[in-house]
Amino acid sequence: MSNTDTTQPVLELRSVSKTYTVKQGMFGKPKPLKAINDVSISLKRGEVLGLVGESGCGKSTLAKILLGLEEPTKGEVRVDGEVIGATDRRTLARRIQPIFQDPYSSLNPRKSIEDIISLPLRVHSIGDSNTQDKAVREILDIVGLPQRVMRTYPSQMSGGQRQRVAIARALIMKPEIVICDEPTSALDVSVQSQILNLLNDLRAEFNLTYLFISHDLAVVEHLATRVAVMYLGRIVEESSVGGLFDTSGHPYTQALLKSVLTPEAGKGVPDTELGMEYPNPIAPPSGCHFHPRCPMAMTHCATVPPRPVPTPEGHVECHLFDTENGHDTGTPLMREGV
Amino acid sequence: MNSPLLRVKDLTIDIPVGGGTLNAVRGIDFDLNRGETLCIVGESGSGKSLTSLALMGLLGGRIKRTASQMEFDGIDLTKANSKTMRALRGDRMAMIFQEPMTSLNPAFTIGNQLMEALLLHRNVGKEAARARAIELLEKVGITAAESRLSQYPHQLSGGLRQRVMIAMALMCEPELIIADEPTTALDVTIQAQILRLLVDLGREMNMAMILITHDLGVVARVADKVAVMYAGELVETGSADQVFNAPMHPYTRGLLRCIPQPGKTERGARLGTIPGIVPNLVGGVTGCPFRTRCDHAVAACRNAIPHRKPAENHRFRCVHETGHQTAETVV
Fold first, then answer.
1. Where does the source fall among the domains of life (chain B) (predicted)?
2. Do B220 and A55 touch (CB under 8 A)?
């Protein structure tokens, strides 16, 4: 972690796309599914990028690409300016580590906690058994687990303790970037707050950069410094956390924010006005992918794909904000069920 | 005032385990009127799902259920035999489960499963049952309802499956619906739609609803009555307004401090935590189950805990009359 240059992005995606070919039925023709469609992100050291969107929007595919588990079909991912894919998996694993959603299925039930946490060190042949043992003890201390758990097994631990083990395993390699994929959604609220506090403390202490994937917008608002909203493989809005939560632009972002159930008695359940279900990613709607569900849709939204429009702190992809495209010529489009 | 639709007094559930008896639910009381929504909120292992299964008579044979009173519209559920319970379930009381993929039968069509309860409980023909199924699918917002009847569960998305579950529960116009985490597996946008649907239909049909959830946001927006459950006991009950705006029990206050509240919690600030873990409920639980994690615990917490009534319909259990020993520093 010698790099102290704060202007250089620690993580950068340049026009990354990932297309899968999906067979439809037994005799159906294979069709392309654009899981990630021309996505560019740049993250500086110490930032937390919250990635939000409904299931099927491509959040987890993006995480897999960053971990080197999937290769992008197009575009490149750079870590500290170096293109991954050119670097091998081992080098990448030292820089980027994951924390997964379910601490029950992501820890090997037949290995002791010590084995689980020290495995990355052994895989990378870092130090001898003495220094590895010392490293495990240190990291247990950091994540707030007592030393005695070293000899225990995952089945003897609570959900919160298991997630601490998963965090310890991710951090023992001293990575720069941690990909957190729904790290608290399997946990009870009282445990969730402990893990969120821990992630926040660790970031400050080790100057970590997080990609924080979550469907819980209240949690994202709390932890993230930047937020990207994904819809059908595209990042439709990206901004600082303040920019997005205080003055969001994209109608989809607004609908997501509206659907957050804050614990305020008597407010009732909000109407998201999203009408239809999430579209099938194999056959995405024409023009702006969001137009069939958009309460603000205009005629040309159905035909013309929107361009990214720069905003003070990021970008938004919506015809409403594209003045050069002349949204005043549009007339409201009728939606099904409204 | 009419007598309530459902009245539960001193409901206790014991589960025999290797080392003795697990006192999973201990002496809970609540009433529910027609058209009312009760939210039972608690963390995993608090006994909230067991409570709902106990009401439906769906506990396993080894699990012991006792209550001094458990009445559904004048029917004594503690004495009801399996025949009476079968006649009630799916007809006058219905249940919606969390995971629609595992609670729908993958080998039968949607239509088949929708019509089953009606054909079983009511003297109607297949045509009438089919018409009712289409009517309800439309009511829960499913387009092309008729063509859905011949589809299988795997052909539907998660949101659609949960709507089918709701339609299925409504087939016989039940008076009581128990929904166990009905929206936990869904996206936030779909969650809001499904909850709205449940609330609107409940109002329209004057149904009573028990909603079991761990999500405080859902509780605040949906509940008429809230029951906070901790380690097998109801530690606080009241209206949504009372529980969220004037929480009395230290556990309720602790939970509310644990969640980031947009607009209230400062971004990136430390969240409140509840230290420690849930106590072991095997073998005689005495005193307050929360005392090992409570900032306000005193020696008296080991003894019997009094019921307090700070306002009409607002109750909590704590040795401290105000729920505090000393003033709390607000985080």
1. Bacteria
2. no
